[in-house]
């Protein structure tokens, strides 16, 4: 097992867009294994490479009996329904707030061997795909919270033992959600 430290909110790598993977080599397979082992050990539903300090477009997931990884993922919305519900992040430990996401998405990408992969996600898996892809764009789920909830979240984060006191940065996702950001 190769468990790595997870980068926490405030680390600049979490706000930097990741680079597309071009080499489907042994190093990528090691990264996927490290992501999987770290996600599993931490009890997470997903983990993106930037959360380990690696600026590559890769994430792992294990949700509702579905497990795997995606390299260079993209996703599209299926239908027009949304879900509101609690969302957390391994980079913001032990905190959750209600966040709005698309109910159904289809993600496309590649596996660690360069073979095409398609994942149809609904409910929690759809939430995970959107959340982890946001990480690859340097976006955190805090950026998707309504203004009042975001203010509450920032107050709670500033009081958390793990927060280093830096100036938190909020940004908006390049992915559209309910007509705005």
From TrEMBL:
Pfam families: Pep_deformylase. It comes from the Bacteria. GO terms for biological process: translation. CDD domains: Pep_deformylase (cd00487). The keyword Cell wall biogenesis/degradation does not apply. Keywords: Hydrolase, Iron, Metal-binding, Protein biosynthesis. It catalyses: N-terminal N-formyl-L-methionyl-[peptide] + H2O = N-terminal L-methionyl-[peptide] + formate. Belongs to the polypeptide deformylase family. HAMAP family: Pep_deformylase. This is Peptide deformylase.
